[in-house]
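Appendix B. Raw example, untouched.
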Amino acid sequence: MTAPLLAHATDHGRMYARSTSEQFSVPSITTVIGQQPHGLDGWFGYMGANSLAQDPTLPGILGSPAKVRQAVSRAAKAAETYRDDAAKRGDRVHNYCEQVALRALGRPHEMKETREALAANGEEAFAARFDEWWELFQVEPIAPEITVWNKTVGYAGTLDLVARINGRTCLIDYKTKGTSRDGTVKPLDDKVVMQLVAGMKAEESLVDPVAGEWEAWQHGESPILLAVAIGQTEVRPLRANPDVLKHHWWKFCALRRVWEMSADTTAAGAALLPLAPPPISR
């Protein structure tokens, strides 16, 4: 995904500014959702143990404590390495999807370059499956990579695509996914619904990032919210259930308060202070 011009990495997560000349002031949608516990301890442990077990140097280093420590250090970073590689792959796929929309809108694009980047990493199948889905669903793009803002709750984010499909306005979020053992794309996490409903609840959308010009959000009236899982064997679009949107919205607002309280707690200062022993009585 193209890095939004107004987004900044901070100690409190990714935050957005109103223009390129202003300081960041609200958290991103994904930063707010990130306040939810992830429960990946088991996965991190498995990735580390699996990496160590498959280390080709392991048989020859068992007699050297120093080399064993180095192997353990490499294994400890296995989950982080996997996560970073997956994020880079996701960026390449998102970039290609954005270029497809730009070309359809008749705007300057880099479709050739982004497809070549996928091919160079053995990932061109993602582009091929996406092209098939785009044609099958007759996607009519309206606005790719559009930044939105909600002043009332206090957050901002960038939507992958606003489009029209079969005459209905759709807010679309792409998720690059691996392939399961049965050859299908891996399932999506339900938290994508929070991401989509937060986009729907936007109040403004960005017009000019340099001037800080915004306009009233035009696509929040009962759009279809689509999470699109993009894999190498298939693309699977899933619609957010309209009956549960209010619950995911309330949960998002609660997580926004958690983020604010966490930031306030950090800014308040040290939680623990040193304590000297009492003076000796004489």
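End of appendix B.
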